């Protein structure tokens, strides 16, 4: 079975070659343009991204003056590479680009205000959520109309091939929450040099494999077959290449931060791809670190409002481990390891015998 799947993926009628080219082109664009882009941003931003005063005190010294909006590097190279190598007749590709552009615009405005006003508080939460949910609504409607009618509103469960919950019209608000929630979860994870970038590389790599399998006309694996979803592998490859190129400059000590421009857009795209592939629950496994980061913030806020005490030394949870004495590099590396383990567990759910 595995040999047959491998042969299908590398065959002449698949998107594998275009995905490989998309990966390398986006990687090369980022690497070649990175230094000039960073120097440009340093000149334009002056003092760089303002550092949270309520965050780790060491960050006020080590990260001061570092420019932000590095997400522009990722988005530009990934979108350009996708436009070159993806099938532009595929509606999944176009709705993905729209999600990247709109969420990227929201993040850009937020970053711009932070830099120009030198404040960590930019757009209001209400304004952000309005733009995010509005875009997610359009994306979910388009995706639903392009999905097979028999699975259009289904919620699938990993390890349970024959278990699917039909949410009917409730699926639309659910999917909107998945997209917007993932966007903000990734944004919360963007607090240490290279952390969110590495986590995104792992998550998109897992979904590249899932998209390739979903695109097969028929499969005995624990996954729903979605016509034309294999084209998403080209998009995922573009993102992975761009993130890898960006990581060259974002690794500790970071020369530039991703900013909301990148984290909001890439998180939204990750959620959108999960909705396209009917893998929303699987996203919670593969992107488990993002889930933990978001939950840590919600727990901290809820408990502090009730008791004026904190559960964690600092939230998101990556700062908690910093406060416990872990070095920044140690936190990032260990979070990457956890993400890789979770991604493997998620992918294995497609190949293990069904439990139901």
> How is the largest sheet built, in terms of strand order?
1-2
Arithmetic mean of pLDDT = 88
Task: Please compute the radius of gyration using only Cα atoms.
Answer: 20 Å
The residue ranges in which pLDDT falls below 50 over 5 or more consecutive positions are 1-12
What shape does the CA trace take?
globular
- Can you summarize the main beta sheet? 2 strands, antiparallel
**Estimated share of beta-strand residues:** under 5%
Structure annotation, total helices: 14
Distance between the termini: 20 Å
Level of helix content?
55-70%
Q: How many domain units?
A: 1
H/E series, N to C?
Answer: HHHHHHEEHHHHHHHH
How is this fold's topology laid out?
Elements: H1 2-10, H2 16-45, H3 59-62, H4 71-85, H5 91-117, H6 125-146, E1 154-157, E2 160-166, H7 171-189, H8 195-214, H9 232-250, H10 259-276, H11 280-286, H12 288-307, H13 317-323, H14 328-351
Antiparallel strand pairs: 1-2
Helix pairs in contact: 2-4, 2-9, 4-5, 4-9, 4-10, 5-6, 5-10, 6-7, 6-10, 7-10, 7-12, 8-9, 8-10, 8-14, 10-11, 11-12, 11-14
């Amino acid at each position: 079975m595995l040999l047959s799947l491998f042969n299908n993926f590398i065959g002449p009628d698949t998107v594998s070659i275009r995905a490989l080219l998309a990966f390398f082109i986006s990687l090369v664009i980022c690497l070649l343009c990175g230094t000039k882009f960073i120097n440009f941003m340093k000149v334009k931003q002056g003092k760089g991204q303002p550092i949270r005063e309520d965050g780790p005190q060491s960050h006020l010294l080590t990260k001061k003056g570092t420019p932000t909006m590095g997400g522009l590097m990722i988005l530009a190279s990934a979108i350009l590479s996708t436009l070159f190598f993806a099938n532009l007749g595929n509606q999944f590709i176009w709705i993905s680009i729209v999600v990247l552009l709109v969420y990227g615009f929201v993040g850009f405005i937020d970053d711009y205000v932070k830099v120009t006003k030198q404040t960590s508080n930019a757009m209001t939460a209400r304004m952000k959520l309005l733009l995010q949910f509005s875009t997610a609504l359009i994306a979910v409607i388009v995706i639903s109309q392009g999905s097979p009618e028999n699975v259009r509103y289904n919620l699938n469960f990993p390890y349970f091939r024959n278990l699917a919950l039909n949410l009917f019209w409730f699926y639309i608000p659910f999917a909107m929450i998945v997209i917007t929630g993932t966007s903000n979860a990734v944004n919360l994870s963007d607090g240490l040099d290279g952390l969110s970038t590495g986590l995104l590389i792992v998550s998109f790599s897992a979904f590249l494999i899932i998209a390739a399998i979903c695109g097969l006309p028929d499969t005995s694996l624990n996954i729903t077959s979605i016509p034309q979803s294999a084209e998403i592998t080209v998009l995922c490859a573009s993102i992975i290449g761009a993130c890898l190129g960006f990581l060259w400059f974002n690794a500790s000590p970071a020369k530039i931060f991703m900013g909301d421009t990148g984290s909001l857009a890439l998180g939204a795209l990750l959620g959108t791809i999960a909705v396209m592939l009917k893998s929303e629950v699987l996203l919670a496994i593969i992107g488990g670190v993002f889930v933990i980061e978001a939950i840590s913030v919600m727990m901290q806020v809820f408990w502090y409002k009730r008791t004026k005490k904190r559960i964690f030394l600092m939230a998101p949870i990556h700062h908690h481990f910093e406060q416990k004495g872990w070095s920044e590099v140690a936190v990032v590396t260990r979070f990457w390891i956890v993400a890789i383990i979770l991604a493997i567990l998620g992918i294995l759910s497609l190949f293990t015998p069904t439990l139901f």
